[in-house]
Fold this sequence. Notes:
alpha/beta
Amino acid sequence: MRQRRVLGVDPGLTRCGVGVVEGVPGRPCTMVDYTVIGSDPDADLADRLLHLDRNLAELIAKHQPESVAVERVFSQHNVRTVMGTAQAAAVAVLAAARAGLPVRTYTPSEVKAAVTGSGQADKKQVTTMVTRLLRLDAPPRPADAADALALAICHIWRGGTRDRLSEAIRTAKGRQ
Length: 176
């Protein structure tokens, strides 16, 4: 089984976590890089989205991932926060699509279950497990970066299997 490189995105307008991980399903992964793309909450929305898009495009070009994993936006009580998160997620999906990369979205509980074994884990538990799974000397900070790394791990472990299954189905249909 060959290693896969995945760029994980924990979307946010003010802080967007990005993590790049390499690995194969069921085996320990390796952290390639992580960062947080920030923007000024008082800046114009269009400028903030453009800033995010440019930074994601640069990171995709730099790290050459095979796929992108983005956290699926879920309903929160604060509509303004949901809107910003959804807009940031859409920019991430668009940046990946523009680069010709497949994109998979995961709910927070799917990611938590993949890295901790529990879909109810808190941020501290996710950060602790990401640190262990990637054999890091220190926890990735801030939590947005740890969440992005967790998304990438989740995709390698779960999405890789899904992608191979989908490809096998496409191949089988093509032979009919």
